[in-house]
Design goal:
Number of domains: 1
Protein name: TetR family transcriptional regulator
CATH topology: Tetracycline Repressor, domain 2
CATH architecture: Orthogonal Bundle
Number of strands: 0
CATH class: Mainly Alpha
Strand content: under 5%
CATH superfamily: Tetracycline Repressor, domain 2
Structural class: mainly alpha
Number of helices: 7
Organism: Nonomuraea longicatena
Radius of gyration: 18 Å
Length: 195
Amino acid sequence: MATPQPDPHQSSQETRRRVLEMAVTLREDRSGGAVDRFLALLQDRLPLWLRILHGLSHLAGKGQVDDNLLPIARAGIDYYSEILAAAMPAFTSPTVTVRFREAIRDNGLGPVAEVTPLAGYLAAERRLGRLREEADPEASARLLLAGCFRHAYNELLFGADSGPDRDTGAEEIVRELRLSVSAGGSAGGSAGGRP
């Protein structure tokens, strides 16, 4: 029996509503326009990013796992690059940072909101035999997201020319997770024909 999928528009609107609720809490200790700009960007980008992650559930069993993850990794690098650039000037006050943490937690928008749909997709692929049996879906989801975050952070801090471009970075992140069953397995090969 198929699991009912939430309406993407309704999910996006719900995420926007939660970011606005969070903004009300943060405005009590405003540090100026940087916080407002960050919250406006988060309100715009977070719902789209979560919609992209939730959209993966429709791809389980279709195409190649690595090919399905590649646009996710690229979108993750883009998302974190934009968010980090806006977050750095917004979080100069420890009070704002603490309030942000509390608001994120209270509104269910922390890391679990990103990890859960990605881990769900990976778990479905593993059940279908398209992911290595020893692959831990939740740990793999966290590692993929961490790779995207690290690429964005390094690009922001050291410059875009300090490492691979975003497309190459996304390919490396997905390839090095080595999630797909090997070429000798029952379904598809891993990127680059590596086991």
